[in-house]
Each structure stands twice: as structure tokens, then as C-alpha cells.
Amino acid sequence: MFLPTKRFQHFAAMALIGDGVMALIHPAKDAEAWKQGPRPWRNLMHFLSDKPNLTRAIGATQILTGIFWALHQSRNHPKAAS
Question: Kindly report the CA angle at 65 between 60 and 66, in degrees rounded to 5?
Fold first, then answer.
């Protein structure tokens, strides 16, 4: 499935914000949800599941990044902001 660039960027911003909120609410569960993939990634997720405050900080960063990305898209596409 191919998404046009604008739609993909919108979806990616929503995913960043949503995952960031989940990390703030329940950091260990959020890290556990991502424990699939290559070994280095699994090791990182295992590390984060034991560090709830770090996971929350990363989640807050994800939320801010998603919001700023969405705002940047709105500036580049004024019709989409209304």
C-alpha cells in the first residue's frame, strides 16, 4: 500500500504522538509492546522497560516531535490547517 507523502507524514505524526502518550501512561508496557525485531532493538526495549522515567522522557519527546511536525505540515500546506 502506497500513501501519498502528505498522508504518510500525517500518519507518522499521529503515531509519534500516540506512542508517546502510551509511554507516559504506562512506560513498561509501552516498551514491552516494541520488544520485537533485531536483537539490538530488543535489548534497547528491555533496557527501557526497566527505566520508566527515561521511557516517559522519550515519550514526551515523541509527543513534542509529533506536534511540531504536524504544525510544520500545516505551515507548508495552509489549506490543510483550516
Answer: 100
Cell reading at 38 = 533485531
- Residue type, position 81, single letter: A
Q: CA dist 21 to 2, 37, 66, Å? A: 27, 22, 11
At 3-56, the pLDDT tens digits run 688 888 889 999 999 999 999 999 999 888 888 889 999 999 999 989 999 999
Domain ranges in the chain are 23-28+35-82
- pTM tops 0.90, yes or no: no
Q: In the block, which residue shows the cell 527515561?
A: 54
